[in-house]
Amino acid sequence: MSRIGKHPVPVPAGVTVQVTGQTLTAKGKLGQLSLTLIEDIAAELQDGKVVVKPRNEGKLARENWATARTNVFNLVTGVDKGFTKNLEINGVGYKAMVQGNDLVLNLGFSHDVKYPIPSGITIKCDKPTSISVSGFDKQKVGQVAAEIRAYRGPEPYKGKGVKYENEVIVRKEGKKK
């Protein structure tokens, strides 16, 4: 029996959740998101909480029970509070800035990298070496942060590149004479 799937998802004040068939829709102050559950999972609204249960005892239902509950939790949390990923840039001359609808990255290439900011995502550069990606869709925020990091991932010798704020880079020892 799933330990995560057993816990109902509380719906905070200011968020409305609607369950119609296999589609769950959450609307809050940041926006509106919807999720389609697989046929083996059922969701219902009880006492201001979303309860996710398997329809049968099959393998597919047991595998996806906790995943569906976590996706519902991310949906409700996203429209209420939103999600943020922070990135750091290390390296001499490496910097980032927001210009209009583009994130301009100077990462040691012969040209600046221009990343178009997708709709529903907000990117801030408080300092030239820090990037904050935020939005209400957790998957989209993570995807945008991963795409920015992929332009120049951290290298193991000096740690130069773009990394997540809490990422630990395993350093290697350089050449010896």
UniProtKB/TrEMBL annotation:
Record flagged with keyword Cell membrane: no
A molecular function (GO) term: structural constituent of ribosome
Function statement: This protein binds to the 23S rRNA, and is important in its secondary structure. It is located near the subunit interface in the base of the L7/L12 stalk, and near the tRNA binding site of the peptidyltransferase center.
Name listed for the protein in its UniProt record: Large ribosomal subunit protein uL6
SUPFAM superfamilies: Ribosomal protein L6
Keywords attached to this entry: Ribonucleoprotein, Ribosomal protein, RNA-binding, rRNA-binding
UniProt source species: Aerophototrophica crusticola
Subunit structure: Part of the 50S ribosomal subunit.
